[in-house]
Amino acid sequence: MVLVDIHGSCLSRNIFNVDKDTDILVNNYISRSNIVSSMMPPADINTKREELLFFDSEYSHRCLRNGIEKNTVPMLLNSIAEFLVIDFFDLCQPVAVYRNTTFPTYDYSFYNTAAYKNEPDQFQSINFLEIPTCLWYGYIDIYWKKMIGKFGDNIVLVRVSCFNNYITSNKEINPTPPNLLAFGNEIYNSALFELENYIIEKYNPYVLDVSKYFIADEDYESDVTPVHFEENYNISSWSLMKDIILNKPKQRYYDNLRPKIFAQLLERPVADRDFEFLWKERGGFVSCDLLDSISLEFTSEEIIENRKWLATLYHKTDRIYLSNHLRDKNVEISLINDFINGIDMSEANNYFKPQFINRLKEKQSYLNQPVGHLVEEYLEALDKGDLRWIQMLSCLSILLPDDQGIIYNQLQYHMAIDNKIMASKLKQRLDSPPVSV
């Protein structure tokens, strides 16, 4: 049994609710405990559980006391857990400022206590994401170094991407109710992104970065706070988290979706106008190299119009995805051939579909060539300015997924076409400055 501590929010905790029949167990869940405040001195303040308004529970009061007494870091340093999972969502909320310290207010419930009401002038409020980073990044560094000393390489950072919209029970996209934005808000995404990049570049933790593809769904979670995402967020994250914790892989950054999950996102039961908004804000092809590179050649309008048909293709490639763990390219190519040869041409009833199928067949011809010959063809096409090099490069990334030169050339291409999602993904796969093939 692998024990895991969580210092973060439901964004991380809910991942571990997907599968109870597992060799992974949550040891400590420390929420509403702002990491910056956790590194500051304790405050001499008394509170009672029954003062916490809607949060009158032993757990809620314990979380508030942890923030006031600064129990979080000692608890983690004395833990028997092997892994630590962290997210920065709690930084979205302001903290109370009192004398020489700050502390989180457990969703503002502290302001109903006698300690606050008896001397409100002694308290101020501040949001760290709204002040210069030079004033508080140092606390983050101290915290992170302590956690590395305790957990070593076994730290997982769950990236936060709030979204101020949700899918209603009527399958429409509505803005998040204003009262819920007090707990988290996409206006802080840029500051969170900057902080996360700082940590990733400096400390190289494992990274789970899939929240950026999802939206809250009222049918799944009635509390549509901007990080209470649809069920597929938890399912996708759990699959990746389980692999990290049980296998401790060399790869450190994870932002891909399983084809089956991506297909279900394409199938979201919303009107095309709402899907267009979702696709613009939370979309991107990050699931299957075989299909993604072709999909990127078409306009958003063409993708939206044909999204249900595309979803059927992504569903069918899930079998190829599941075979990847075998690390047998012959098996993978055989499955790709079966998939492409099995596409029903009678469904190609508009301009988009035969174009897409023809591109797939072109990739099939490249994938069935000897790798050395394809490399030569690629270099020749690149030298002549023959645009077929783009498809050849995509095929080489399937045949040679860990080749640093191939990854580097892919990165240059996606930066040139301003595909930020793919460029970010590829940057994380580079081990060192490579030599181009």
How would you describe this structure to a colleague?
The protein is an alpha/beta fold and 437 residues long. It has a domain at 2-151. Helices cover 46% and strands 10% of the residues. The protein is built from 20 helices and 12 strands. The strands form 3 sheets. The chain has a 6-stranded parallel β-sheet with strand order 2-1-3-7-10-12. A 3-stranded antiparallel β-sheet has the order 5-4-6. A 3-stranded mixed β-sheet has the order 9-8-11, with no helix packed on it.
Annotation field: number of helices: 20
| Assembly state of the chains shown | single chain
Share of residues in strands: 5-15%
| Tertiary shape | elongated
Total DSSP E strands: 12
Question: Numbering strands along the chain, what is their spatial order in the largest sheet?
Answer: 2-1-3-7-10-12
Rg over CA atoms: 24 Å
Head-to-tail CA distance between termini: 44 Å
**Low-confidence parts:** 432-437
Query: Helical content, roughly?
Result: 40-55%
Q: Largest beta sheet, briefly?
A: 6 strands, parallel
Mean pLDDT over the residues: 92
Q: Which structural class do you get from the secondary structure elements?
A: alpha/beta
